[in-house]
Design a protein that fits this description.
By secondary structure, the protein is mostly helical. Helices cover 66% and strands 0% of the residues. The longest helix is centred in the middle third of the chain and has 17 residues.
Length: 261
């Protein structure tokens, strides 16, 4: 009986110390060697063979190097290659989930998106394209000023400025008025928005959040336009602002503001 128990203990000890298949067979030093050789494809093929308990900061750095190198090697020259690049950037985060929180990788992914997204826009799919960009900004809360860059470098260059307003609202939420209100493209988007008929969020920007930066452009618009339609939409945004009192009196159709009952 004692011999039987001893045999069981030996077997259990052997199982506890044996390497886990598929994980402990690839040492970090070998990944480091692949990194030094810039053997990025081979590194990516073996990086998940490292045991989860060994995937430390060094492991993440090696993964970052290989994933970033794969993105950097992509040639984005037309719609087909742009779509392929966008797929690759997303698929890497599915295969290697830790990349979703990697600042170096996300920064490189942003650069790929900034180049590729304008190339995949088709006029009949504009709403879907815009939603794709908004979701990209919403899902990446790590990359600094991502919403601003997408609004300025992608949407603002391909569509009318006011279509970028959802990105500016997200930017204000994340980074605050001090960092965002002075952006020139925000001013263009807002001014276009107010002439189209400002919704509550745009009115909030003009009259409160970014009033110091946007009051001047709004007053200039009122001063220079002769369109009654535009004045009826824009003049109410100057209500209660002493600096605009004389301008409102001179240019705005009356009564501009509703009379209290």
């Amino acid at each position: 009986m004692n011999r039987f128990l001893a045999s069981c203990l030996v077997a259990l000890t052997s199982c506890a110390t044996a390497p886990v298949a598929g994980f402990s067979s690839y040492p970090l030093d070998e990944l480091q060697a692949l990194d030094s050789q810039e053997a990025w494809a081979e590194l990516l093929a073996h990086v998940l063979e490292v045991a989860p308990s060994k995937r430390d900061g060094r492991w993440q750095t090696l993964l970052d190097h290989a994933a970033i190198a794969k993105l950097a090697a992509l040639e984005v020259v037309d719609q087909a290659s742009a779509n392929a690049a966008l797929r690759t950037a997303d698929e890497l985060m599915v295969t290697y989930p830790s990349l979703r929180k990697s600042r170096p990788y996300l920064d490189e992914r942003v650069e790929v998106n900034l180049v590729a997204l304008p190339m995949v826009l088709e006029s009949r799919q504009t709403p879907e394209w815009l939603q794709r960009i908004i979701k990209l900004a919403e899902r990446d809360a790590v990359t600094p000023k991502l919403a601003q860059r997408l609004a300025t470098e992608v949407v603002g260059k391909r569509l009318i400025p006011s279509t970028s307003l959802p990105l500016w609202f997200l930017a204000l939420k994340r980074d605050g008025a001090a960092q965002v209100c002075g952006e020139p493209m925000l001013g263009k988007a807002v001014m276009e928005g107010v002439t189209e008929g400002a919704g509550p969020e745009v009115k909030e920007l003009v009259t409160k959040t970014c009033q110091a930066q946007l009051r001047g452009p709004v007053m200039e618009l009122v001063k220079t336009t002769d369109s009654r339609t535009v004045l009826l939409k824009v003049c109410p945004l100057l209500e209660g602002q002493p600096e605009a009192a004389e301008l409102v009196k001179a240019k705005c159709p009356g009564p501009v503001f509703p009379t209290a009952k």
